[in-house]
Amino acid sequence: MNFKICEDVSALGISVAFLVIYNIDNSSTDDLLKQNIENFYTQFLQDYPPKCLENDVNIIGYQKLHDSISITDKSLVASPESLIKLLFKHRSLRSINFIVDTYNYIAIKNKVSIGAHDLKRIKGNVKLCLTRGNERFIPLGKNKLQPANKGEYCYIDDDNEILCRLDCRQCDKTKTTTNTKDCLFIIQGHKDISTDIIKATAEEIQSIFRPYTTNQKENLLKIL
């Protein structure tokens, strides 16, 4: 599998880490990790009131990135901001599965966009390009095609299927389940998030999942 960022997207100042981790036990339950995550959320809510979102460089950077390509749909909010708002609303996050729960926690902690995709459901290679408007996209949890707008930066596989729309909405096709073994994590920043932060976030993901992988195949990490 190869990964590519098209020149028109690179010009926006986007940096991305593509991380493949093989043979994860996604049915795992780690009570200590769960408790650590809940403790982090409790402390986060105490230390980070809602007004902090308005001045957070990482959050503002995603908003500016959307503005730079004339995104006007206010429902398209970068995943770190939307997760933090969910945390404000519910005081915790609903458990989905081991992979999702863990990367959601890291995304909030680092205020960086992270997505995860079941590798076996991705067709061929993955590129991050501006859309032409003819791509296929079925959002997570839906079963009907949603029209693809022209000029949005999206992650697209060789089936011309959008895996993730902007840094906001993943597709249903590649969602992770408890049966997911091989997983592609996509960690995406913007011009105000350094490549070092993107790399460190990828390494943190690897570190957390290392005890829950049962194979000797080396992880694949590519930073573009």
Protein model, in words:
- The protein is of the alpha+beta class and 224 residues long.
- The protein has a single domain, classed as Phenylalanyl-trna Synthetase, Chain B, domain 3 (Phenylalanyl-tRNA Synthetase, Chain B, domain 3, 3-Layer(bba) Sandwich), CATH 3.50.40.10.
- 33% of the residues lie in helices and 18% in strands.
- It is built from six helices and nine strands.
- The strands form two sheets. A five-stranded mixed sheet has the order 1-4-5-6-7. The chain has a four-stranded antiparallel sheet with strand order 3-8-2-9, with helices on one face.
- A hairpin with a 3-residue loop joins strand 6 and strand 7 (169-170).
- Helix 5 (98-110) packs antiparallel against helix 6.
- The longest helix has 17 residues, at 31-47.
Properties at a glance:
224 residues; Phenylalanyl-tRNA Synthetase, Chain B, domain 3; four-stranded antiparallel β-sheet; alpha+beta
Query: In order across it, which strands form the biggest sheet?
Result: 1-4-5-6-7
Tell me which CATH architecture applies here: 3-Layer(bba) Sandwich
Global geometry: globular
User: What is the number of domains?
Assistant: 1
Q: Please report the first level of CATH classification, the CATH class.
A: Alpha Beta
CATH topology: Phenylalanyl-tRNA Synthetase, Chain B, domain 3
Roughly what fraction of the amino acids lie in strands? 15-25%
Helix content: 25-40%
SS elements, strand count:
9
CA-atom Rg in angstroms = 17 Å
CATH homology superfamily:
Phenylalanyl-trna Synthetase, Chain B, domain 3
Mean pLDDT: 96
Number of discrete helical segments = 6
In whole angstroms, the N-to-C terminal distance is 15 Å
Largest sheet: 5 strands, mixed
Low-confidence segments, given as residue ranges, are none
From the helix content, strand content and strand pairing, which structural class follows?
alpha+beta
H-E string: EHEHHHHEEEEEEHE
